Amino acid sequence: MKILVTGGAGYIGAVLCEQLLAAGHQVRVLDRLYWGYTPLEHLRGRVEIVHEDVRAINPRVLDGIDGVAHLAGLSNDPTAEYNPDANWQMNADATAHLAVACKQRGITRFTFGSSASIYDGLGDGLFDETAPVKPRGAYSLSKFAAEQSLLSIADADFAPAILRQGTVYGYSPRMRLDLVVNTFIKDALLRGTLFLHGGGWMWRPLVDITDVARAHVLCLSADPADVGGQIFNVVHGNFQIRQLAMLVAGSLLLHDKTVRLEDAPLPKINRDYRCANGKLTEKLGFTPHVTVLESIERMLKALPLQDPSELAHPRYYNIKWMTLLEEILSTHAGERSIWDVVPLDAAVGARAPSSLDGPSPSKSLRSL
Ligand SMILES: NC(=O)c1ccc[n+]([C@@H]2O[C@H](COP(=O)([O-])OP(=O)(O)OC[C@H]3O[C@@H](n4cnc5c(N)ncnc54)[C@H](O)[C@@H]3O)[C@@H](O)[C@H]2O)c1
User: What's the domain count of the chain?
Assistant: First the structure.
């Protein structure tokens, strides 16, 4: 199949592209390229890249497409709270428009990278996909609205699978160090100390990045009748933050690095929720299986252990990077803002999908 991956140059997207290619599919990426071309550099010549905003899709992007994995948008609370309007346009409105466009074009297979943070606020309990969720905060509200739009038009011809992904851990060519396990590894390497906000008693559902990508590949290849209009939690297990700190500190000890654990005040945004992962196993026979410990080892192999100073770069923290880009653009590009929609013709690096074969990574910053 030929799969369109929106947000394919992001943290999860880069790994999903690798897995889709490995499974024999062709891949076209549509991405605003906030992190440039670099995350897909190793796939140069093997994926088509369309530099476009998901809010202003040229219908030609869907030419020849058999399925869509939709990951584009703002991907955490801080960036969503930073510009709630842009967040709503990207995460909620754009998803609704993309879904209608796919349905009109007869594209049945569709996966959506939703979030288990939708369960936050329900109180204590292990929640499954039938829970009467009450999302709070700009990010989860927009994800839930997107889910509703997809479900409202789901039928035999349009079969979206909604994947409520837990907080992801693991290595990607587009590394994020603002996700709890990854952050702990960075803090352990850079500062030798892990801070347990509020004692770190909060629960989180977690999942490895390769398992998330596997869930998308599986749902895109499944019989649409089995996955269409269905919500699946994609979770390996639920962990207390302090447990995760101990797993990271213990792993680092095996690499001769001592890590201290310290109490710290509760942050402004405090998430605490758990969810069940049985449905994916029951319906599709797939259980996310890569453990936190295995994933930590993979990251320690891939990250610069001897000179970790690189890990402090803002590119690894979505909110730091976005605010930095916004500052650069507002200083040097007059009216333009990173939150503006980039029309196809104005987007540097945008070309007709048929002629894309892996543009130069050196264009990454100019492309913004
Ligand atoms: N990483 C997690 O822990 C996690 C957990 C649950 C859900 N999710 C969801 O999964 C998806 C992917 O997350 P990620 O961690 O890879 O995030 P990411 O920020 O690394 O990737 C998002 C990608 O989307 C692109 N993008 C952003 N706005 C766009 C727009 N308007 N038009 C086109 N492209 C745009 C970015 O350039 C980036 O490449 C997101 O929708 C996120 O909300 C992520």
Answer: 1
